[in-house]
Amino acid sequence: RHTRIGPWMLRLVGLARRDVREMVELSYEFERDFVVDSSSFESHFGVRPTPLAEALARTVAWFREEAS
Q: Which of 38, 55, 58 has the alpha carbon at shortest distance from 47?
């Protein structure tokens, strides 16, 4: 069974457990969506990001090739 605990509980447990303390420090990453804007990089270097579907397909293909 899983339960969700609040940030105050994580801080409390973090007093005794280092791994939980690190979770508290990084919890901001899970509170909001990441917004990535590559427009400045694209205009400066002339490089476009790889579409997600293509990146996933290439990664899976690489992994399958390396695993065999």
A: 38
Instruction: Spell out the residues 6+ positions from residue 10 whose beta carbon is closer than 8 angstroms to its own.
Output: 20, 23, 24, 27
> Backbone phi, then psi, for 46, in 5-degree steps?
70, 25
Q: Is the pLDDT of residue 22 over 90?
A: no
Measured distance CA(23)–CA(5) in Å, rounded: 12
The rounded distance, in Å, linking the Cα atoms of 55 and 51 is 6
pTM higher than 0.85: no
The answer to whether 7 and 27 are in contact (CB under 8 A) is: yes
Task: Please state, in angstroms and as integers, the Cα–Cα distance from residue 56 to each residue in 14, 18, 25, 27, 42, following that order.
Answer: 35, 34, 29, 26, 21
